[in-house]
Amino acid sequence: xxxxxxxxxxxxxxxxxxxxxxxxxxxxxxxxxxxxxxxxxxxxxxxxxxxxxxxxxxxxxxxxxxxxxxxxxxxxxxxxxxxxxxxxxxxxxxxxxxxxxxxxxxxxxxxxxxxxxxxxxxxxxxxxxxxxxxxxxxxxxxxxxxxxxxxxxxxxxxxxxxxxxxxxxxxxxxxxxxxxxxxxxxxxxxxxxxxx
Length: 196
Description:
Blueprint: H1 21-34, H2 39-44, H3 48-62, H4 71-84, H5 88-102, H6 107-114, H7 122-137, H8 143-151, H9 156-179, H10 186-189
């Protein structure tokens, strides 16, 4: 069965034309920029109030000008922790963005499988070690974890960002897994071949 014939969610997916104006405008803007509509926008539009809240928090975390985390760092956190949560959608979608931002086609696959063996910097390894601990064992985070991060140049705002990104995508991963959100085929080629 081709992916085009498979449902992108177990829940109803509204038609773009039937959405509230603000959500329709947001989705069409993403389509204009990306060349397609990522399925996360369509599936979450099923519940407009939650769509607005989700993307407001997403943008506050992922599209910000403060702190030392790069766009690639942020996507690396999402890809790594989404793999720990077995979220196919987020690994594929954010792995595609990571390939683009890092300008390294293999890094997304590497951190999704095992960040400890990935071709990343010691600073990025420390960041991902912490993110994985937040993802899998947050109650054990302590002073020694902060000391390691500070030793790599992260400040309290960066540590908050790593934590908040990990926590937010923990929510996203669980939602995507439960609703059976399918990744768009377009993600598989992003960052691997030149854009047409």
